[in-house]
Design brief:
The protein is of the alpha/beta class. It has two domains: about 190 residues, Aldehyde Dehydrogenase, Chain A, domain 1; about 180 residues, Aldehyde Dehydrogenase, Chain A, domain 2. α2 packs parallel to α3 and α7 crosses α8. It has a seven-stranded mixed β-sheet with strand order 10-11-12-9-8-14-15, with helices on both faces. α11 links the parallel β14 and β15. The protein is built from twelve helices and 17 strands. It starts with a helix and ends in a 5-residue tail after the last helix.
Length: about 425
């Protein structure tokens, strides 16, 4: 856990949660492998014929993981590829190689054969790009930015030989919609977690908060007061709520975006950095009120929340605006009106939807997670069909009458 805190900048609760998630992935994929890969599945067919389908590994998978979940996603990709019958070349994010090294060491000690799991740390240019281009790679599992996913997809299209699977989970311009029936105290609590946990460096983090105008003034005042109470500092201290962003480049990008927001939009609240944060890559959580999501050209990966007011007769316009971003990763809805909730869910095509709760994922265990549109290819990591994407299907059909007869013909019943 110490490595996750020191190298990844995660707070103690976030580090514990990540370890738990990594363990859940290992256990869940082992269960799914036994259920789906242990033996052929018998298919229905006419009497005198036996049909079955079986899953096989594809070969060598390249697993390219991000720094924001340096243990959980790294371990989950590897576990899924191995459980699907493949060998793995694992390329961790260049910012968090020590966590990846420790994870691989533990996997090898636990009995994973050393000839099927290989760690290749390094930069995307030096390691990631050659892996993607190598014709021996039979599939890619990737979690990271949408722009990088596009480059990988183009490189795979240029490769000669078989068309290989590309399993991608990418970013999101994630929105939370709050109407006037919502409980303000719960909304503020969920927004703090969804927008600022892990310094806003979760792909599922809330980037856009749409608040119905009737309650906006009251809710934003409560939000500013709650943000004032956030403790920013050393993530190894149990009292810390918000740690640093991953590196200086990330902080500089956030500072540039915040400066533009301050010139053009209204600052709701900016946290004050304590004196003891001057030597780290700390960035203060902040919230701005903007007029439209059109002001955002892409995902802002950090603790900056953008707030849009909407009137009761503008809900469909809000949904159109969210759709126009092109992303489909996470959506939050705070409403006590079932008709409103069902209307929103029916209009938007979002991979992961959360009603009257925070948007950071499962409360207990692995919750299937993955996006649509610009947010990924699917299937969902941690879901019952994830392992199938790492495998290929083969069928077998046998004419049992050719062996000299079939007792089932006497009853003229289909085989089950």
């Amino acid at each position: 856990m110490a490595l996750i805190i020191r190298e990844g900048g995660r707070t103690i609760p976030a580090a514990l949660s990540e370890i738990r998630e990594a363990v859940d992935y290992l256990r869940y994929y082992a269960v799914r492998a036994r259920a789906d890969f242990a033996s052929p599945e018998r298919l229905p067919g006419p009497a005198g014929e036996r049909n079955e389908i079986v899953l096989h590994g594809r070969g060598v998978f390249a697993c390219i993981s991000p720094w924001n979940f340096p243990l959980a996603i790294f371990t989950g990709q590897i576990a899924a590829a191995l459980a699907g019958g493949n060998a793995v070349v694992a390329k961790p994010a260049e910012q968090t190689p020590l966590i990846a090294t420790a994870a691989v060491r533990l996997l090898l000690e636990a009995g994973i054969p050393s000839d099927v799991l290989h760690l290749l740390p390094g930069t995307g240019e030096a390691v990631g790009a050659p892996l993607v281009a190598d014709p021996r790679i039979a599939g890619i599992a990737f979690t990271g930015s949408t722009d990088t996913a596009r480059r990988i997809n183009l490189e795979l299209a240029r490769r000669a030989g078989p068309i290989v699977p590309f399993i991608a989970e990418t970013g999101g311009q994630n929105a939370m919609i709050v109407d006037s029936s919502a409980l303000a105290e719960q909304v503020v609590s969920d927004v703090l977690t969804s927008a600022f946990d892990s310094a806003g460096q979760r792909c599922s983090a809330t980037r856009l908060l749409y608040v119905q105008a009737d309650i906006a003034n009251h809710l934003l005042a409560m939000l500013a007061g709650a943000m004032e109470e956030l403790a920013i500092g050393d993530p190894a201290m149990i009292a810390t709520d918000i740690g640093p962003v991953i590196d200086a480049a990330a902080r500089e990008a956030l500072e540039a975006h915040a400066a533009g927001m301050e010139r053009e939009c209204r600052l709701i609240y900016r946290c004050v950095l304590p004196a003891d944060t001057e030597h780290g890559t700390f960035f203060p959580p902040q919230a701005f009120e903007i007029d439209s999501a059109k002001r955002l050209s892409g995902e802002v990966f950090g603790p900056i929340l953008h707030i849009v007011r909407w009137h009761a007769d503008q809900l469909d316009a809000v949904l159109d605006e969210i759709t126009a971003t092109g992303y489909g990763l996470t959506l939050g809805i705070h409403s006590r009106i079932d008709e409103t909730v069902h209307h929103i869910l029916g209009r938007l095509h979002i991979g992961n939807n959360y009603v009257n709760r925070s948007m950071i994922g499962a409360v207990v265990g692995v919750q299937p997670f993955g996006g649509e549109g610009l947010s990924g290819t699917g299937p969902k990591a941690g879901g019952p069909r994830y392992l199938h994407r790492f495998a290929t299907e083969r069928t077998l059909s046998i004419d049992t009458t050719a062996a000299g007869g079939n007792a089932s013909l006497l009853s003229l019943q289909e085989e089950s």
